[in-house]
Write a structure and sequence with these properties.
alpha+beta, 8-stranded mixed sheet, 4-stranded antiparallel sheet
Amino acid sequence: MRIPSEAELTRVYGECQESRKRYESLAKNFSERFGHEKAEFFSAPGRTEIVGNHTDHNGGKVLAASIDLDTIGAAYPNETNVIHIVSEGYRKEITVNLSALDKIIKGSGTVALVAGMVEAAEKKGFKVGGFDAYVSTRVISAAGVSSSASFEMLVCSIINYFFNEGRMDITDYAKIGQYAENVYWLKASGLMDQMACAAGGAILLDFSEETPTYRQMEFSFEKAGYHLVIVNTGKGHADLSQEYSDVPSEMKQAAAAAGVSRLCETDLDHVLEKVSEIDNDRAILRAFHFFEENRRVVSTAKAVEAGDYKEVLSLLDESGNSSWEWLQNCYSLQNCKEQKITLALALTRLFLNRVGDGICRVHGGGFAGVIMCVVPESESENYVNYISKYFGRENVYPMGIRAVGAAHLGLE
């Protein structure tokens, strides 16, 4: 069975030795499980949110990027009306009958997610057929780097390549993933995760219109002499669904007081005029965060274009402080004694204070999970060793920004 070419692997991963072994293993497992002699190969990265924490759902702006942790898949049409997906490490096969989507229970996990993607694709006028796929991932699960969106964008790539001749674009991918999460997974997600995983590289996103707009940006921490390190602090024990849902709903509560449905449709001055009419102080603070965070995204993009990475880091530091103090997504009020995010931030700040450089902030949705640290390259290994003492080396991920988004990989 042919696998992606060395040139293709190098284009995606910057090397072709380790990645080749991954795809050889993937091809072997796919063939053994499904009996196919042929396969096509796909990859979709996870993502990092650089600045723009919890703004997308209210029509805000985000600077995000794909990362060099990805989900890969081997797949081939099976000439039936059934999708079969095996995910490495999970015993139960995902099986979706395209003729019986109405029988799939919403909220029932990955099966429901795939069913939702099928329904969304068909509603948008795209074709979907049966296929077999074997999937393996290195994207950290439940840790703020969008393992679910990475999987969704991989499935979109498969559907696009086999059944739609490449007619689906990045925005189609993102909206299909969002529909599946909202309607079939019952999760109130925006579009940022999907867009960042699908596009590749760093992108400046604007969610103020029904169809989000984006533009690519030349951005790399390494270019400025820094490394990005993600620390998985451990999953919180509380059910955080309500905590996540409260963020967009409370921002919209503040927006409603100003006479609009989303904060992007008004401005800070109008909300300030209505403060006395909003009986939820946290909603006011979260609205303040939205407007200031939007400003920071625009300023960060300008600093990136000017090559002023000192200003970039300063703005990222401001953003992290705002998430902690105004947005308030660094720990759950359901169990305020469990504060893995704030503990990791405090430990990291102690390290960075001694170094005299770098920043740290909550990463992604927050409440539990992940922080990001941007540390000087010369101190990267020292930081990894330091923070590993508290959270385990297996939970510390030095990573880079990947230029290639969700993609079909050419064969040898």
